[in-house]
Amino acid sequence: MRGALAAADSEQWVLWLKANKDYLYVGLCDEDLCSDMSRALLLLFGLLQDLALPTFATLFSSLRMLSGPEGHRDCQAQADILLTSLLRMGAPFAGAVSKLVAEFEPSMRIALPGVVQLVEA
């Protein structure tokens, strides 16, 4: 899909993602934003492919936050759908998501069961 973006456009989107990743990924924890944010991130990741992967450490932090006691169930479900969709997209996301899941704490495994089940199948 990245072929659809000119190299200059890809660079601009990567810069934008890196500059806004904290806000975008925290949006996954907001019950009013999580559904739209999950869909938007999936589209953006589809365009940027491996260029999005350096931001996944920040994504992990937000996943930890939404898996805590204050995490909203709808947000957890949307994050689970996002990760499952990324896993099913294959490379480069399958490996990156598998690495994230390998680092999941118990609360994250409970909150995001779909992706855990797929990775460990």
3D shape: globular
- The radius of gyration computed from the alpha-carbon positions, rounded to a whole number of angstroms, is 14 Å
Question: Structural class, from secondary structure content?
Answer: mainly alpha
Percent strand equals under 5%
- Helix-strand string: HHHHHHH
Average predicted local confidence, pLDDT: 93
How would you characterize the largest beta sheet? none
Number of strands: 0
Our count of helices gives 7
Span from first to last CA? 28 Å
How many domain units? 1
Helix content: over 70%
Uncertain residue ranges:
none
Question: What are the SSEs and their pairings?
Answer:
Blueprint: H1 7-26, H2 34-48, H3 56-66, H4 73-88, H5 93-102, H6 106-111, H7 113-120
Describe the structure.
This protein has 7 helices and no strands. With 121 residues, it is mostly helical. It has one domain (2-120). It is globular, with a radius of gyration of 14 Å. The relative contact order is 0.14. The model has no long low-confidence stretch (mean pLDDT 93).
In short:
This protein is mainly alpha-helical and 121 residues long.
Notable traits:
121 residues; globular; 71% helix; mainly alpha
